[in-house]
Write a structure and sequence with these properties.
Elements lengths: L3 E8 L8 H7 L1 H20 L6 E8 L4 H8 L4 E4 L5 H14 L4 E6 L2 E2 L3 H10 L5 E5 L5 E6 L17 H11 L4 E3 L4 E2 L14 H7 L16
Helix pairs in contact: 1-2, 2-7
Amino acid sequence: MGDKLILYFVKYPEPGKVKTRLAKSVGDQRAAQAYRELTETNLGILNSLPQDFIKLIVAFDPPEKEEAFRSWLSGSYEYVVQRGSGLGVRLQNAFQFAFEKGFKKVMALGSDTLGLRADLIMKGFDALEFYDVVIGPAYDGGYYLIGTNCEQPSIFKNIPWSSQHVFESTLNKLNEKNLSYYLLQKLDDLDEVPVGQAADGRSVIWHRSVGSAKNLRGGKEHEIFT
């Protein structure tokens, strides 16, 4: 196994507990189903990466749903609970866990990203050869991916999570710490975008996420790491 790790942050797709902003437009059931499908799609993309060099760990929430996660996503993955009361603490704890296990290049990736591609992730790992931090910015002002080549707990502290200033504040933090960084392509996520029903029964958002997401932006957008 190589020295690269992806921490795939996933919430259990329980209606009323995930994609609550999207649910305001389409309802709890459809929002949860769209999130479930997109999580599975992105997991398939991660599975296409060279597993001899990149380890995948599912960082899940809530803790009591571990067996349900294993039934849903497969028991073949390694699972770790998202520990902490807020996203910043959870990211900090996840990276600490990863580096303590001996990994040298670690990424945290949100599960509701639209337009995710394997080449973006590989580009991010390549960047960590030369930069301290890699970030995949989101259109809403957050980010869908963040990676480092050593433990950097300060970059997750005092960030205005759940706001449009997450990305900007993180860059300010990196500059304050004199950390170099590389920016990946900006992408969308699942919140507050059109969701319909396709002929095969899957949500339209699932079909569109497989291709380009550029036509999905029709208003305020949100990302899992905000």
